[in-house]
């Protein structure tokens, strides 16, 4: 016996129409429903408050914050900061600035840091990198 084949869309327009209808059917039961109607507990009034925007001036006084030294080394700054946090870069004798320069020259072309280059920098600093994404640009 062969499986019964359901009717297939014959062109792209019909395929999109069928897909739109499938999505509409899937969510029709909750369209126009409130959060409580679909099982979400609480209200906006009970939501935690977001922190105030700003406060960046205090970063200068935090010894754990590694600042960029130029407009293209944010990836290196993050890698050095994470290396310091997990303790792997503390054994390296160079200053933060020297570590960032070394990472930049070893892993990038000096025009910014791609996700792949950042993952290499993080791995160099002792982090286990399990996934990268190329949906970002430098």
Describe the structure.
This protein has a domain at about 65-125. The longest helix is centred in the first third of the chain and has 16 residues, at about 10-25. About 35% of the residues lie in helices and about 0% in strands. With about 140 residues, it is mainly α. The protein is extended. Helix 2 crosses helix 3 (about 95-105) and helix 2 (about 75-85) packs parallel to helix 4.
Compile the SSE list and pairings.
Layout: H1 12-27, H2 74-86, H3 96-107, H4 115-124
Helix pairs in contact: 2-3, 2-4
Which key features would you list for this structure?
138 residues, mainly alpha, 4 helices, 37% helix, extended
> Could you report the average pLDDT, rounded to the nearest whole number?
77
Residues in β-strands, percent: under 5%
Helix amount, in percent? 25-40%
Sum up the overall morphology in one term. Answer: extended
Short description, anyone?
17% of the residues are buried. The chain contains 4 helices and no strands.
């Amino acid at each position: 016996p062969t499986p019964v084949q359901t009717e297939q869309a014959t062109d792209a327009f019909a395929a999109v129409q069928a897909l739109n209808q499938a999505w509409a059917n899937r969510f029709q039961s909750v369209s126009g429903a409130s959060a409580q109607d679909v099982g979400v507990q609480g209200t906006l009034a009970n939501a935690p408050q977001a922190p105030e925007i700003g406060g960046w001036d205090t970063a200068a006084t935090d010894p754990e914050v590694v600042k960029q030294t130029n407009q293209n080394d944010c990836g290196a700054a993050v890698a050095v900061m994470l290396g310091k946090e997990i303790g792997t870069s503390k054994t390296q004798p160079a200053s933060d600035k020297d570590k960032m320069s070394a990472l930049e020259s070893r892993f990038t072309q000096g025009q910014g840091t791609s996700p792949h280059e950042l993952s290499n920098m993080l791995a160099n600093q002792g982090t286990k990198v399990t996934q990268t994404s190329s949906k970002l640009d430098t």
